[in-house]
Amino acid sequence: MAIATLDPIRNYQTPGAFDYRLQMATKAIGFSGWVRSAREILQVQEPRLSFWHHLRFFPEQVRQRVMLFLNQQFPPEVAGLYQALLIGSMVNISPQLVEAFKDNGCMHVLSISGLHLSLLGLFAVTALTFLLKRSQRLLLHCHVPTLALILTAPLLLLYTFIAGMNIPAIRSLVTALLVLFAVVMRRQRSLIHLIAAAALIVLALTPLALFTVSFQLSFAAVLAINCIYPRLPLVIAGPEPRSTPNRITRGLLVLQSMVYVSLAATVGTLPLMLYHFNRFSLIGPVMNLIIEPLLCLWALPCGMLGIPFLWIAPDLTRLICTLGSGGIRLTIWIAEAFVGFPYASIWTITPSFFEIILFFIILFLLLHQGRTIRQLSLTLVLMVLLLGSFTHALWYPSKKKEMIVSFLDVGQGSSTLLQLPDGKNILIDGGSQQTERFDPGQALIAPFLWRQRIWRLDDVLITHPHKDHYNGLPFVYRHFRPRRLIINGDDGEEPAYGQFLETVRKGKTPIQVARAGDKLQEDKGLLLQCIGMNGLGTDITSWSTNDRSLVFRLQFGSHSFLFPGDIGFQSENRLAQHNVTRRTEVLLAPHHGSATSAGPNFMAAISPALIMVSAGPASQGTLPAPEHLEDWQQKRIPTLVTAQQGTTTCRTDGKTLHIRSFTGALQYFEENGEEGTQHSTP
Fold first, then answer.
1. CB of 623 within 8 A of CB of 593?
2. For residues 623 and 646, what is the distance between their CA atoms, to the nearest angstrom?
3. Residue 350: phi, psi to the nearest 5?
C-alpha cells in the first residue's frame, strides 16, 4: 500500500513542448502520484485473488522478473539496453547514452518493433514445428506448420503485453497476426493493406494515438520502406534467374538492401522528425548499418533465447545473455565514440504544414516513373521553393510592422522572448527547475524558438546568475549562437554559471556588462534600455544577488514593458530615487510576484495595465503572494500567471496591444493605454 499525493497530469503550456498529457491519455492515465519517502510504502497481506486477476498481472510480473535479473547480472548501461530490447523499458538507460543514440540516429532500435516480433515468431514457429512433428498422430491428422503458426499467435500477444503494449509494439503485433492469418487462410499478402489494417485497428482501440509521435513515426517509417525502397535505383543488380550469386555478391546485395531500407525510413520520416524533434542525424543511415546488426542480430536473439529459461535454468539464461552482452558493450562504445562528431546531428526550425506537404509532393515526383522534362522542371522549382521557404530567415530576416513579446511557461523560472520589428530576436533569461533528465533549454525554450522559426538569437540577456534564470541557456547558446551576451557582471554563487560564461568566452561571443542608461536596441519608435541596477550606486555590490538584477524597459510606440528580474523592496526604492520608474503598460512581476517585491510605491510609479507572473504550478498559493493578488484584483489590474494561463504573447504595432495566452485568454489595449475588450475562449 502506498500513500501518494495525486495530481492531474500537467503539460508545460508552451508551444513546441512535449505533450505529456496526450501521451498518458492514450494509456487512459489522467493522474500521477508522488510518494514522498520509502516510509510511505507499506507491505500488507495480499488478499486471495482470482485466477483472472493473476492472469491480468502475469505479463507485468514477467516484466519485473526480467528487469530484476538483468539488473543483478550486468552493469547498469548493459542492463538498461537489454531491458529496452527485451521488455521495452528505457528507464534504466542514462540520459547521456540516450542522447548518444539520438545523435547517431539509432534511437528507434531501442523500441519494440516488427523485428522483435519477427525473431520471436521465427523462434516459436521453428521450435513448435520441431516439437509437433514428434507426434505421429498430429502428422497424420493435421497440417503441422499451420498448427505451429496458430500456436505462435498467443506467444506474440503475450510478448506484446510484456513489452508494455506501446504503439509500435501494437502495430507490429497486429501486422504479424494479420500475416499469420493470411498464411493460415492461404490468402495473398499485400504489405500496404496490412499496414492500413494495422493502423485502423490501432486507432479503433486508441483513437488518440493518431496524434502521438510514436504512431506517426512508426507507420510513416513502414510506409516509406514499402513505397520508397522498391523504387530506388540498384547500384548492385541482383542475379539473373536460375543463377546462384557468389558470397561476395550476396553480401553486397544484403548491404545494399540495409542501406536502402535505412535511407527510405530516414527520408520518409524526415518532415515528422523535424516537426516533433527539430533534429535529424546525417550519419544515421551509416550508424544503423553498424549498430542494428550488433543489437538486433546479436544481443536481441541471445536475450530472446535465454529469457524463457529464466524460471527453470537461470544459469543457462545467464550464459546466453552474457554472450549477447558483447554486442551491447560494443554498441555502447561505438555510440559514445561518435557523440559530438561535427554535423552528425542537425538541429533545425519547425517546418510548416505547407513545407511538409511540399516535401512529400517532391518525393512523389522524384519516385514517379516515366519522368518528363516538364516534371523534372516542376520538381526543381518546388525544391527551390521549399529550400527558400525553410531557410529564408537565415539569409533574409523578415521585417514586420509589429513587435512580439512572449512570456514563456517554463515552470518555476523565467524566460521572455522579444521579436523586434527589424527582425532581431532577443531572449531575456532562460531557466527553470532542472533535473538529470530535464533541461529547460532543450525541452521548453529551444522548441519554442524553433516553433517561431528562429535560427539564431541576436542578444541573450541574463538579469542575474540564479539557476531559475539561466540554467537552460547553455543548450540555447550551443544551438542559437547569440551575437551578444548581456549580464550584470556578478560572478554568481553557482559553479555552473561560471562554466557557462567560460563556454561563451571560448565561443568568442562578446559579453557586455550592462549599466543603467545603456541603450541595447534603438530603432524607429523602439527603445530597449537598461535602467538598473548597475550604475545606481556603489553600495549595491553588497546587496543580495536578487537585488542586483538587471532591470530592462522596452518601449515601442505608445506601449511599454518592464522586466525587473528578481529585485525586491530595496532595489525598487533605489529605482524610485533615481526617477527611472515611470508608467509601464505590461509588468513582469518582480521576483515571480513574491511578498518581498512589488511594493506599493513601486507599483504606484509603474501603474501597470497588465501584470505577468512567471511561476510554476507547485508555487500556486505562494507565487504570486496572496496579498499581492488580492491588492491587484481590488485595483482591477488583470493578472496572468504562466502556470495557469501558459505562455502569453503580446503583439503591438505601437498603437494597439493584443494579448493572447496559451489557454485562449484575450485582451487588447488602445493607444491611450485604456483597456479594450477582454474575454476568454475555451
1. yes
2. 15
3. -80, 125
Condensed to tens digits (0 to 9), the pLDDT of residues 39-62 reads 999 988 877 878 888 888 888 889
Predicted TM-score of the model (pTM) = 0.91
| Nearest to 432, CA basis, from 648, 643, 659, 598 | 643
Indicate the SS3 state at residue 315: helix
Q: To 5 degrees, how large is the angle CA 310–CA 312–CA 316?
A: 60
- As a whole number of angstroms, the distance between CA 80 and CA 37 comes to 25
pLDDT for res 241: 67
CB count within 10 Å of CB 420 equals 22
Rounded CA-CA distance 217/220 in Å is 5
What region does 73 belong to: left with phi over 0, alpha with psi -120 to 50, or beta? alpha
528 φ/ψ angles, rounded to the nearest 5 degrees: -110, 115
Q: Are the C-beta atoms of residues 97 and 90 closer than 8 Å to each other?
A: no
Provide the sign of the torsion angle of the four alpha carbons 440, 444, 447, 450, taken in this order: negative
Contact 482, 457 (CB under 8 A): yes
Question: In 74-190, which ranges are continuous DSSP H helix?
Answer: 76-87, 95-103, 114-132, 136-141, 144-162, 167-184
Q: What is the dihedral of CA 426, 429, 435, 438, to 10 degrees?
A: -20
pLDDT band per the 50, 70, 90 thresholds, residue 672: low
Contact by Cβ (8 Å): 428, 416:
yes
Q: How many CB atoms lie within 10 A of CB 423?
A: 13
Q: DSSP states of 362-400 as a string?
A: HHHHHH-SS--HHHHHHHHHHHHHHHHHHHHHHHSPPP-
Cα(175)–Cα(181) distance, integer angstroms = 10
- Residues 645-659 have pLDDT tens digits of 999 999 999 999 999
The residue written with cell numbers 507499506 in the block is 42
Cβ proximity of 673 and 585 under 8 Å: yes
Give the alpha-carbon dihedral of 366, 369, 375, 377, to 10 degrees.
Answer: 50
Q: At residue 637, what are phi and psi to the nearest 5 degrees?
A: -95, 115
Query: Confidence class of residue 681 from pLDDT cuts 50, 70 and 90?
Result: very low
- Cis amide linkage into residue 293, ω under 30° from 0: no
HEC per residue, 565-630: CCCCHHHHHHHHHCCCCCCCCEEECHHHHCCCCCCHHHHHHHCCCEEEECCCHHHCCCCCCHHHHH
